[in-house]
Write a structure and sequence with these properties.
Two copies of one chain form a homodimer. Chain A is of the alpha/beta class. Chain A has helices spanning about 20-35, 40-50, 50-60, 70-80, 90-95, 110-115, 130-140, 150-155, 160-170, 185-190, 225-235, and strands at about 5-10, 120-125, 150, 175-180, 195-200, 220-225.
Chain lengths: ~240, ~240
């Protein structure tokens, strides 16, 4: 009964390179529009606002659940202002927010997932909303079998509802599902409620600002070099 | 804003041949077990219990939402008894119920969906639960981008929550989503809440018991011969 059946992947940072993709996307867009701005600083500040914005949803349930697209759209406008980026319209901010739908995968992601899909159910388990994750898969050719999103559970990771809710929707016991992530805190929360765990290091995720997750710091079931290595270790 | 972005497919009957698949599956299984029974009659009676069992969920919300797997498991045991099928264990009934996870596609389904996926988001929109639909896709090679299931909305089709909830999760307006179905009543309910509609005839779905849905009987946006024909009409 505890045979591994499904692999769920943290997505931002683990499967796709959000920082490199957003910086490249915004730099190119700004050149076309002749808008000046420190896009590297904006992307880093934006990511800094990511966890606090989800915490606010968690702590204020009376506001209702807001999707990641909604949270990102709310946070970018004041961040751009604080960085002296001027003259952007509402449509421009919508475009920048939709950058999270156009992130590129790490080089091993698509080859590794394609091999894993032959033997396992594969899907994201991400704080991104469903539409974002579907667009991302179309953009990058991620061959998911199913889309698991915080939006389905109206809870953000690391709330237990996300991990347990995903197993339940698949009709599986928690131990038949493994979370694959580049973030030790995500794995700790999944392990606590009975999922199997796999750490994959992404040591350039935060660029020069990376301060943690250089290596596994828990007792995870698998520690792999990358997703292709995981496919090899699982016999795919 | 009303450019078509996503195609959602009714699944049982429209994409997969539930009747032919279940009859073949049960007949082969019974030969291996040396169990006697009229499997054709059982499959037809079981399908007869399908809509009433979902209506019971709709009319008795205090019971909570039961998945299609749960409803089918409840209904098969008394139906088998009424047909004089004897000696089956709980595990046998579990196996027969899981037959809905092993249905085969109509011959045009996979080639048509593969072409449509190049241009559109494609997914089931089915009363089957998420785990069932994922297993079905793995079994038959259905190349879905996303799984839309009654289970996500805790409402069965034709309740409007299913059609509108699917569009909302995709971040799309209802008119950017088209339901493809072999059942006129499903299309009528989708059209009523603003989705586009496509009828595909499956005139052998119910075998000799087919009494309706031989042809389109509403003002649908598309009427096609099969899913490959739809791909051609949509320029895929």
């Amino acid at each position: 009964m505890t045979e591994l059946k499904a692999l769920l992947f943290d997505t931002f940072g683990t499967v796709v390179d959000w920082r490199g993709s957003l910086i490249a996307d915004f730099t190119q867009w700004a050149q076309g529009k002749n808008v000046m701005g420190d896009w590297v600083a904006l992307v880093d500040a934006w990511r800094g606002a990511y966890k606090p914005s989800m915490d606010a949803v968690r702590k204020n349930p009376e506001r209702g659940f807001l999707t990641l697209d909604e949270l990102q759209r709310q946070s970018i406008e004041p961040l751009a202002a604080s960085l002296g980026i001027k003259g952007l319209t509402a449509k421009d901010y919508d475009y920048l927010t939709s950058g999270w739908h156009r992130l590129d995968p790490w080089p091993d992601s698509v080859p590794g997932l394609t091999r894993l899909k032959t033997k396992f159910i594969i899907g994201p388990l991400s704080n991104g909303n469903v539409g974002l994750l579907v667009d991302l898969a179309k953009h990058s050719g991620l061959p998911w079998d199913v889309i698991m999103s915080a939006e389905l559970f109206r809870h953000y990771k690391p709330d237990p509802e996300t991990y347990l809710g995903s197993a339940k929707l698949l009709g599986l016991a928690p131990a038949q599902v493994m979370l694959v992530a580049a973030h030790n805190d995500d794995l700790a929360a999944a392990q606590k409620v009975g999922l199997k765990t796999c750490f994959v290091p992404r040591v350039t995720e935060y660029g020069p600002h990376q301060v943690h997750d250089f290596k596994a710091d828990g007792d995870w079931d698998y520690v792999v070099r990358d997703i292709v290595d995981l496919a090899g270790q699982l016999g795919c």
